[in-house]
Design a protein that fits this description.
Blueprint (H helix, E strand, L loop, with lengths): L1 H21 L2 H22 L5 H23 L5 H19 L8 H28 L1 H25 L3 E3 L3 E5 H21 L7 H29 L14 H21 L6
Antiparallel strand pairs: 1-2
Helix pairs in contact: 2-3, 2-5, 3-5, 4-5, 4-8, 4-9, 5-6, 5-9, 6-7, 6-8, 6-9, 7-8, 8-9
């Protein structure tokens, strides 16, 4: 299993690097669109849609909505779909706090989960495209940031973890792991300051944004874990050997990408 996981991770990493650095923007948009469509297909099952016909309906509505949002952002220069995505993660924070495994996934809960797929995946897709449109290296930095936070949380949690962060959702995550992830953001942010020549007056802001983005990535991970726990499944799918489904690989980025983009755009570091 470990060998399979390493091989799949290596292939995914090289493919991601090549796509970001060498694919034209249109082709990258299509590739990432295909990725979120697969994610939406997995999401439909996790949210309670078991019949394939309803899952296809969900996928069709999702694709049309994503295309419309793409048109609004890239042709009409409206950023409200990104802002809506960021506000959604504020709502998720409350959902995570209120979650209990004793809550049965009734009609209203399923409706929230179904709509959550749109609010989670589409803003993330748009944010990734906008960041790449500005500078491909910045997108690689975002991936490095989320990967560093996840790795630091794992090892610091394994070494020092005593207090669980969200025991009813993901028993393996600890508060000490979260602090480890935030501590790693300092050197990662300094690397970003140097690579992207961030002006001196924005150093502290960029560091704070990196930490907020890391926190958002944890929320993305926890929210997908909550969805899987509600659906009583271990992985979102079986597409990636040793890794599960697409959602299992992009859950952190779904929250981190819109937060990172809006944070950069807000103060003019990234100009649309």
């Amino acid at each position: 299993m470990l060998k399979q996981r390493i091989i799949t991770g290596t292939v995914l990493g090289l493919a991601t690097l090549g796509a970001i650095l060498y694919l034209p923007e249109t082709w990258l948009a299509l590739v990432l669109f295909a990725v979120i469509l697969v994610g939406a297909w997995e999401w439909s099952y996790l949210s309670g849609l078991r019949e394939r016909r309803w899952r296809w309906v969900y996928l069709g509505v999702f694709a049309l909505t994503a295309a419309l949002c793409w048109y609004l952002v890239f042709w009409q220069h409206q950023l409200w779909p990104l802002l809506l995505g960021v506000l959604w993660w504020v709502v998720v924070l409350f959902l995570l706090a209120l979650y209990s495994p004793d809550i049965k996934p009734g009609r209203w809960v399923r409706a929230i989960f179904i709509g959550a797929g749109f609010l989670t995946l589409i803003p993330a897709w748009l944010a990734l495209l906008l960041i790449h449109d500005y500078r491909p290296e910045l997108l690689l930095f975002l991936i490095l940031l989320t990967a560093s936070a996840d790795t630091a949380a794992y090892f610091s949690g394994k070494r020092f973890g005593k207090r669980r962060l969200a025991p009813s959702i993901s028993p393996g995550k600890t508060r000490e792991g979260l602090w480890g992830a935030l501590a790693v953001m300092v050197p990662v942010a300094l690397v970003g300051v140097w690579l992207f020549t961030i002006e001196t007056g924005f150093w502290f802001y960029f560091l704070a944004l990196c930490m907020i983005t890391a926190l958002a990535s944890v929320m993305g991970d926890l929210f997908e874990s909550m969805l899987k726990r509600s659906a009583r499944v271990k992985d979102s799918g079986r597409l990636l050997p040793g890794h599960g489904g697409v959602l299992d690989r992009v859950d952190s980025l779904t929250a981190a990408a819109p937060v990172f983009f809006v944070g950069l755009f807000w103060v003019g570091i990234l100009v649309r």
